[in-house]
Design a protein that fits this description.
alpha+beta; Rossmann fold; 7-stranded mixed β-sheet; 5-stranded antiparallel β-sheet; 8 helices; 14% helix
Amino acid sequence: MNRNRSILHIVAHQDDDLYFMNPDLVRSLQDGDPVATVVLTAGEGDGINADTNDPERVSLPTDYSGYSTARGCGLRSAYARMATGDRNSPWQREITELVPGFAVERFTLLAHPAVRMYFCQLHMGVPTPSGVRTRMFELWNGVHPTQATVPVRGSALTEPQQVSREMIIAGLAALLAEIRPTTVRTMDPDPEHDGGKSEFVTSDHVDHATTAEFAIAALARHRETVERAPVVEYYRAYANRFWGANLDRMELAEKADYLATYMGLDATHCPQGTCQACGDRQLGPNPYRSTHMRSTAYRYSPATDWLRLGPGGRLNAFTVLAGRLVFFTETGPASGQWQGPFPLGDGWLAPTTALAGIPGGPAHVVAQRRRTAEGGAVGIDLVYTTQNPDGGGFSGWQSLESPEWVHADGRRQRELGVPMAAVDGAGLLYVFARNFDQGISMRRQNAQGGWEPWVSLGGGFLQDAGTAITTEFGTVELYVPGKSSVVRWFQKEPGAPFTRDDSLVTGPVASGGITAVNSGGGRTCLYFREAGTQQVMAYRQHDTGRWPGSGAGVGGTGGTGAVAALWAPQRGAREAHLAHRSSRGRLSVSLPDREKDISGARWRESGEMFVQAPALAYDAAGAVTVAVIGTDGRLHVRRQLAPETGSPLGPAVTA
């Protein structure tokens, strides 16, 4: 067991982590990490534990407690199997009071006592004695002062509890203080709408977003009480079905296999002895029936630009811990020694930021900020800060508002995408983000240093996973994956309007990000994972400015998230410096060979599990440096032993 890592999941229903967080979940269990999972609702649904496609289910009796009991048993069976290989491995069952008046059931896996589960049992909508169906989001929004719980069979908690909004936040904060997680995984607080519908139709279950809001509120309290706050990862849920599948065949089969255990397809009896049909039988006999299980994607697609050469020849690294941006810096040029993390401001920021600036110069950092008002109303804008010329500090956050800033419908503002940013040859900052219409909006500085209004570049059905770069000519380019191809906008000259490039046609991009790099001669090279296979693909622009009809496969080692890339001088697209997150959640790197006539990628996996995506940069001496943020919440850095092509990476250094 690794005491430096501790993982906490906060989910709404008994299957959320299996559908949306696996294989990340099972990798943490396989690594022996302490893993705790909090399930907020009872997940009782309509109270009928039978296949939703079964025409006879309408004649079955409603049993809210029984269905919730079966789902809890199914989840524990899946966890037991993931951690021990035995679905029937026993659990210790006990009552624990999170805060006065709010008690939950805690289950501890006896074979691995660091694996624990907490069932809060807030009802999803069971009618009250007066016949009113209350929901958890109404508790969050202040419509109802309390929410009832649903007792399950075999529990010592035999009567419903009335739980307030404050009790949930305080209870989760108490668990955070007890567990001290280094990584927290939770749901999508602001799911996108169904872009294929003319009217507003949310893509997700309202309990998912409400759970994420409760988690954020608890984390905001917790971070003020600890020296080092955790990494927070937010997972897309039903919206996975809109974008290219990002699990390969083996990962998908593994995910389906554990879902089958949760569904009770391999059950011969109930390990707890509390239900007749152990497992969630509403899902039917086939785990693949659900389209949203085919990806495991972050709400905020991770970027690969968070490591850069800053002022004074020192590498700088940026990440967000529990909603607060933090900054690491080398002690000197190419020193290999790090200081930090240093917090940069307050507020609550999404985990994916955009960095821009000339290498060796000050960084411009753009982030998505979230604000929750009284009554639960949420406002979201983009903010930016600029590094001091000496690299020692940053200006305060300034708001860029958002493309939907003045719109009366607050739901539009909440779907604001992750920021993308670049600085042109004149030093002016450009900021891009996906808008509510799932196209791209842009705001840029003018020559006087002020900001022009937000404008739309167009587009539609685009992923929230693009990237912006500055070319050798000082122009800015933007690349965003769509439904079936990457979309490109470019400037014909510095400062010019943006033009859409219709000559770029790629294959479908897996949900999770794209990287663009300058590859010499005014040509750009793209790297992304191919939907369904997860193979890394490279598309390099021709000398004419047009694009090839197909990409070059660069292999890879499965996994999810964006691919970091650095161009290797006098080499090709398949010999660039590349890094990505493998199917085991570890760093996988491909470095070019010393010999120029030896082509192709050579992937090598190393290290421990990390979050989001790696970053690559050249240090002041010209050595390639790769960095990750581990699930231990710490910065881990490796660099070449010598600043020359083909030199291997040295050992990892932890900041």
